[in-house]
Design brief:
Layout (H helix, E strand, L loop, with lengths): L2 H14 L2 H11 L8 H13 L3 H9 L6 H13 L3 H10 L5 H13 L3 H10 L5 H14 L14 H13 L3 H10 L5 H13 L3 H10 L5 H13 L3 H10 L5 H13 L3 H10 L5 H13 L3 H10 L5 H13 L3 H9 L6 H13 L3 H10 L5 H13 L3 H10 L5 H13 L3 H10 L5 H14 L2 H13 L6 H14 L2 H14 L6 H13 L3 H9 L7 H14 L2 H14 L4 H13 L7 H9 L24 H8 L3
Length: 638
């Protein structure tokens, strides 16, 4: 085997991210003269890093007789790619020689984990900067909520920096400035178009994104992925499907976009069909299909596919952990964490979220204290865990202990204070923020909406517009959800009309669901049913569930039984549907329903797997519990 063949094999294995093949190739190289070739050795380090095998990557690095700056930078990149923050920082500090790429890699790494303080500190320590470094630090500043003094950017007047500035303006909510910069650019490449397109989608301006997509001189997989996710956001299946149909080259990015889009609409079998037709099954594609099944509630199928995967990365393990956590199986999630090949910050954060969602604050705090590294995201999770207990004093204590705050930190605190009934203090917190964006504005609007004060909501929306903060779909979803809570039908109609006509924001599934709920609370079940049946898209499980909830509120057993049958068309194991129907019956005070009648009605649509599980609909709430010992034997055999 000559050196060219050797290099090609190592590179191909790294790109395939196949750890089994990586070991086989390395065994072939051992004992040959190629073992002492520094280029080959560097590529072996890179290969193991891409395969997620950091122990082997470090061993390969240590076997290099005279490592150079490229060798150390490759190992640093491997640490970064696999989420080993502490090891990356320690290794970087020990590096005897660093280049621009080393510094930029570390800054980008810190930025991805929202450790903005370390990112900025690293930037200030750099002996020299280039365009790529500026782009990274711009990103870090933007996430921290400050705008840089862009005078020095004149030194790097390039397409890359222009695209970075467009991204900066988008991240800060300065959509008009981003659009103006884009339109005035002397040259726009595909990255320029995709940056603005993704920005529109992120701010839920789906129509603007669709119009920009039509204007683009050419599309690539990133363009299609962005606009597909936008159509998914507003429940526009037809246009999303149209874009999918136009994709000629099924690469990894395109396949992942298709899988996520189809799963979002509950079309899990169609998603699996795309997976089977995919020309290549990378670890990313496998992870996408496992995620699709897991998020749709098919944990057994997700676990089956997980076991079949030829290789797994930290994202795949994390997906499985979070799936069981969301299903209320924290005990299984703990066992999965124990089987993680390596505990990255992502893994720790996922388990922290699981304890938070289970309202297990004590265990969450113990885990948080044991974490070797805490990102801003970690702090936000533990802050949210305290906020969910409605303990203002402890929550403020956590907030003040945080090394830095982002928009999520402030939003959590604003919502907590608002929920406690102190609207004035919530507004004071908003005014004290070093920067304000649409996320925090949505939190304030949600606080106002819970009071039912539409005048204050209108004033705040005007104030936000004057600050250059444009409302998005989530803004009006927050307002409609609050109005739904207090039951203001006329206010809901006014808000819905303002969203569509005044702000040009198309209604999505979440808005229609809020209106269905408001109609139900107002006793207008027939109107709610008519709305669901006349939606501009095929109603999915969430819309029928909203109507079922409205039936419960009014004790309308006939509509409840009919709607429950529609819910289980999407998911025959939806225990929430059984529980809601049981509540419909218990709330129907003017209708006497015997137990025999109740069982007869529910058995018309109860799945076979649940027959005999309980003698009443209400008992169906416990059907998802699975014996831990069985999972240990089947899923984690010794």
């Amino acid at each position: 085997m000559n050196v060219s063949t050797c290099i090609q094999l190592v590179k191909s294995c790294g790109n395939a991210r196949n750890p089994v093949l990586a070991k086989q190739i390395h065994d072939q190289i051992r004992g040959t003269h190629h073992e002492n070739d520094r280029l080959v050795a560097n590529l072996l380090v890179e290969m193991y890093g891409k395969c997620g095998q950091m122990r082997e990557a470090k061993a390969a690095f240590e076997s290099i007789k005279e490592p150079n700056v490229f060798s150390t930078t490759i190992l640093l990149t491997a640490y970064a790619q696999n989420g080993h923050i502490v090891s990356a920082k320690s290794f970087f500090d020990q590096m005897s020689e660093r280049n621009i790429y080393s510094w930029t890699t570390l800054i980008t790494f810190f930025e991805s984990y929202k450790d903005l303080e370390s990112a900025l500190d690293t930037f200030t320590r750099m002996p020299a900067w280039n365009s790529a470094t500026w782009n990274s630090i711009v990103s870090a500043h933007t996430q921290a909520g400050h705008m840089l003094d862009f005078m020095d950017f004149e030194k790097f007047n390039s397409e890359i920096t222009c695209n970075a500035l467009i991204w900066v303006f988008l991240q800060n909510g300065n959509l008009d400035k981003a659009r103006d910069l884009f339109e005035s650019a002397s040259h726009r490449d595909i990255v320029s178009w995709n940056t603005l397109l993704q920005g529109y989608v992120d701010w839920e301006l789906v129509e603007e994104a669709a119009n920009l997509f039509e204007r683009m001189p050419a599309h690539n997989a990133v363009s299609c992925t962005s606009v597909i996710s936008g159509f998914s956001l507003v429940g526009d299946f037809d246009r999303g499907q149209s874009v999918i149909s136009s994709i000629l080259q099924w690469d990894v990015v395109a396949v992942n976009a298709m899988l996520q889009f189809l799963a979002e609409f509950g079309l899990i079998q169609e998603a699996f069909g795309v997976f089977e037709k995919s020309p290549a099954h990378s670890v990313v594609t496998w992870t996408s299909i496992v995620t699709a099944y897991a998020r749709s509630g098919y944990l057994e199928k997700a676990r089956f596919l997980f076991e079949k995967m030829p290789e797994r990365n930290c994202v795949t393990w994390n997906t499985l952990l979070m799936s069981y956590a969301h299903a209320g199986r924290v005990d299984v999630a703990e066992k999965i964490l124990g089987y993680f090949p390596q505990h990255s910050t992502m893994a720790w954060n996922s388990m922290l979220k699981a304890y938070r969602d289970a309202m297990n604050l004590t265990t969450a705090k113990d885990l948080f204290d044991k974490m070797p590294y805490r990102s801003t995201h970690s702090w936000n999770v533990i802050l949210d865990a305290y906020a969910r207990t409605k303990n203002l004093e402890e929550s403020f204590s956590v907030f003040t202990s945080m090394p830095q705050h982002d928009e999520f930190s402030w939003s959590i605190l604003i919502l907590l204070v608002g929920d406690s009934g102190n609207v004035g203090q919530a507004i004071n917190l908003f005014n004290k923020m070093p920067y304000q964006n649409v996320l925090c504005c949505n939190a304030v609007l949600q606080v106002y909406a819970q009071t039912g004060n539409m005048l204050q909501i209108s004033r705040f929306l005007c104030q936000s517009n004057l600050l250059g903060i444009r409302p998005n779909q989530t803004t009006f979803a927050s307002v409609l959800a609050g109005i739904s809570y207090v039951g203001g039908l006329e206010d809901a109609r006014s808000c819905f009309g303002s969203m569509v006509w005044d702000h040009g924001i198309p209604a999505s599934a979440m808005h229609f669901c809020c209106v269905v709920d408001v109609l139900g609370r107002a006793g207008q079940i027939k109107d709610a049913m008519d709305l669901v049946e006349s939606l501009p898209y095929n109603p999915m499980e969430v819309e029928w569930t909203a109507l079922l909830g409205a039936s419960k509120t009014q004790g309308d057993i006939r509509t409840g039984a009919l709607v429950a049958s529609r819910v289980t068309e999407f998911d025959s194991h939806n225990s929430a549907a059984y529980s809601l129907l049981s509540n419909v019956c218990s709330f129907a005070s003017e209708i006497e329903v015997s137990n025999a009648r109740l069982i007869a009605v529910t058995r018309l649509w109860r799945p076979r797997a649940l027959l005999g599980a309980a003698s009443s609909v209400a008992a169906a709430g416990d059907i998802s519990r699975t014996d831990v010992a069985w999972i240990d034997a089947r899923f984690f055999p010794r």
